[in-house]
């Protein structure tokens, strides 16, 4: 059920943003694609390495 809800909210986008009003208060909802830490750490390390010529 949760996967179906997220699929309809995202509609093939990598991020969803919305504001929901609940009990007279506004809440900001942000759903982003999960990126494992190992993936973004490896990408950051590759970008930080100086290029060898």
TrEMBL record:
It comes from the Bacteria. This is Uncharacterized protein. It comes from Blautia intestinalis. The lineage of its organism: Bacteria, Bacillati, Bacillota, Clostridia, Lachnospirales.
């Amino acid at each position: 059920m949760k996967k179906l809800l997220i699929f309809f909210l995202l509609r093939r986008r990598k991020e969803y943003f919305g504001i929901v009003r609940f009990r007279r208060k506004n809440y900001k909802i942000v759903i982003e694609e999960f990126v494992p830490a190992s993936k973004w750490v490896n990408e950051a390390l590759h970008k930080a390495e100086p290029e060898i010529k």
